[in-house]
Specification:
By secondary structure, the protein is α/β, with parallel strands linked by helices. The chain is built from 10 helices and 8 strands.
Length: 309
């Protein structure tokens, strides 16, 4: 039996040695062989050099080196595409998700005979109130809009078995929302509750811009309800226009002398209908853009080289 640990890395020179050390301590307690797959996602610091040194000393360390930065989800995808394990644990390099929880996940997977054990954050240390609130309501909003129910307060930290790995690797889409896809795949999935820690070192790799892009992929790849929202906004704008026309007609009949057509009402109506149209076009544009990305058929990532693989 073999367990693969998939660790995406981007500018993690301050933490990668500690991550390796703690993962090796955890793997020493696992009664199966292991491989540690580090994916260097186009780091601009010394991350790749440090990983290369680890790989020279330990053949269990395997490295996938991207030609440039392709993003966290592509890095995890590359790890799953190249892992050989009967099980795969996905964990970030920043040590916010404690590697020791992998042992709990393995025990829970055996006990529950589950195919997926996903980490649920009971507490999140070292994160701003803005990120905590937006993350909380994003997952709940996505659940309401999506056709597939996702567990809330979770990330990509999870343990999956070979059935789920093979099913995931068979999926053809390129802009992946991994935690959503694994939920969509199905099989038996159970939670493992833990406390998320502060970053061991370094800075977050998910600023607001990347968070919004990630949220858009999760929303527009897993739900057609925004299209229905655009349709209902269209009906609403028509209804408002009809009601306004009726109001004008009645006012002219009741007291034509006192009724003066004003530019304010015209401007407000133009803003309302223009806003509805732009919102609708924007929603359609998101779906068309997703189709465009898929139609081009470009690979999700380019691997510059592999070490120990």
């Amino acid at each position: 039996m073999l367990i693969s640990v998939i660790v995406p890395c981007y500018n993690e020179e301050l933490v990668v040695n500690e991550t390796y050390k703690r993962l090796k301590e955890v793997m020493s307690k696992v009664e199966m062989d292991h491989e540690l797959i580090f994916i260097n996602d186009g780091s601009k610091d010394k991350t790749f050099a440090l990983l290369n040194e680890l790989a020279q000393e330990d053949s269990c360390v395997k490295i996938i080196n991207f030609a440039r930065n392709f993003g966290h989800q592509c890095a995890v995808t590359a790890g799953l595409h190249n892992c050989n394990g009967d099980y795969a644990a996905i964990i970030d390099a920043d040590l916010q998700d404690p590697p020791e929880v992998i042992l709990e996940m393995l025990d829970l997977m055996r006990k529950e005979e589950a195919n997926v054990v996903y980490g649920v954050r009971k507490k999140r240390e070292g994160e701003s109130w803005f990120k905590l609130i937006t993350a909380k309501y994003f997952y709940r909003t996505l659940n309401k809009l999506s056709d597939v129910q996702f567990p809330v307060d979770t990330g990509d930290f999870r343990l999956i078995d070979r059935n789920v790995i093979d099913a995931f690797n068979s999926l053809p889409e390129r802009n992946k929302y991994i935690r959503g896809l694994i939920s969509w795949i199905g099989y038996k999935q159970v939670p493992c509750y833990y406390e998320r820690k502060e970053r061991f070192a370094g800075e977050t790799k998910y600023p607001l811009k990347k968070m919004l892009k990630f949220a858009a992929i999760g929303l527009f790849y897993f739900s057609k309800k925004p299209l229905k929202l655009a349709t209902w906004l269209g009906f609403l704008s028509v209804a408002v226009g009809l009601l306004y026309a009726i109001a004008i007609f009645i006012a002219r009949l009741v007291n034509p002398a006192s009724f003066v057509m004003g530019w304010t009402s015209i401007v407000l109506l133009v803003i309302f209908f223009g806003g509805v149209q732009l919102l609708t076009v924007g929603i359609l544009g998101q779906y068309v853009g997703n189709l465009f990305d898929e139609a081009k058929g470009r690979p999700e990532y380019i691997i510059a080289n592999k070490i120990n693989l």
